[in-house]
Amino acid sequence: MTDDAVVSGEHPAAVVVPIFLYHSVSDVPAAGQEAFTVTPARFAEHVEAIAASGRVGLTISEYARALRGERALPARAVAVTFDDGFADTLAAVEALRARGLTSTVYITSSRLDDASGITSPATREIAASGAEIGAHSVTHPHLDELPLAAVVEEIGEGKHALEQRLELSIATFAYPHGAHDQHVRGAVIDAGFRSAVAVKNALSHSHDDPFALARITIMGDTPISTVLAALDGRGAPIAWSGERYRTRAFREYRRLRRRARGVSRRPTSVDTAER
Ligand SMILES: [Zn+2]
After folding, report:
1. What's the CA-to-centroid distance between 37 and ligand 1, angstroms?
2. Quick one: pLDDT band at residue 196, thresholds 50, 70, 90?
């Protein structure tokens, strides 16, 4: 299937929109980031594949507006996102832009201007080039495991910090680790965001939830065939609605494990694939 990629069943005639999730694009992965780091050579192949697909690149806010019926959804759209805020994200965004593709960069506010993170000037440059900047919490916790007050703080303060330091309005949010539930989703809406991305490793589509958009994680060893299949509207499940049982069960497992080990909460820096 190509431009006529259609989801049958619950939502007849839904149009598939692949949303790719990248982290670092580098030949020298940061410690602990090896599995999630894509080399620039591989990334260049992906960029060529995306450009060659003829799909129209959208920022997440543009896509969310289309889902709400506030603008047209191109017949063949694609979105590329980068999480966490690595120093190498600027070059990756530029590589996409050189092929006419926009992107969205989600920044963990505590990483902005830190040793391994992207700088404020580089982030402003990304925004000025037409790509979108989104928020990704302050410290990158599993939000679905926190008390609501802490959830509200992580979401609201992450947005506020980026807006103050970048002098931008931030309208989209990425759940750290993809972890979210109805309380977290509600807090994102209450904070004034207009959209949010999850992980799910599924294809988004024209009936997807604008506050839990499905993305496909690209790992360092993800073969180009995975990218090509997603661009072709296949090779990954179509995003489901609501929480799957497996997600709830895994959250409970993490809770119990943490309690058993007495593990304290600490910032983590990688979006593991959503369970
Ligand atoms: Zn992340």
Report:
1. 13
2. very high
Sole residue written with tokens 């589509």: 205
Task: With respect to residue 4, please indicate whether it lies within any of the assigned structural domains.
Answer: no
Answer whether residue 2 is part of any domain: no
Ligand 1 centroid from CA 2, angstroms: 30
What residues does 117 pair with on adjacent strands? 86
**What's the 259 CA to ligand 1 centre distance in angstroms?**
23
Domain of 62 in residue numbering reads as 13-261
CATH number for the domain harbouring residue 242: 3.20.20.370
Q: What is the DSSP string of 4-44?
A: T-EE-SSSTTEEEE-EEEE--B-SSPPTT-GGGPBPHHHHH
How far is ligand 1, taken at its centre, from the CA of residue 66, in Å? 25
Residue 9 pLDDT class (50, 70, 90 cuts): very low
- The answer as to whether 274 is a domain residue is no
Q: Ligand 1 centroid vs 6 CA: distance in angstroms?
A: 30
pLDDT, averaged across the chain: 88
Q: What is the 3-state secondary structure (H, E, C) of 94-117?
A: HHHHCCCCCCEEEECHHHCCCCCE
Distance 238 CA to ligand 1 centre (A): 22
Can you give the pTM of this predicted structure? 0.86
Domain contains 273: no
Number of domains in the chain: 1
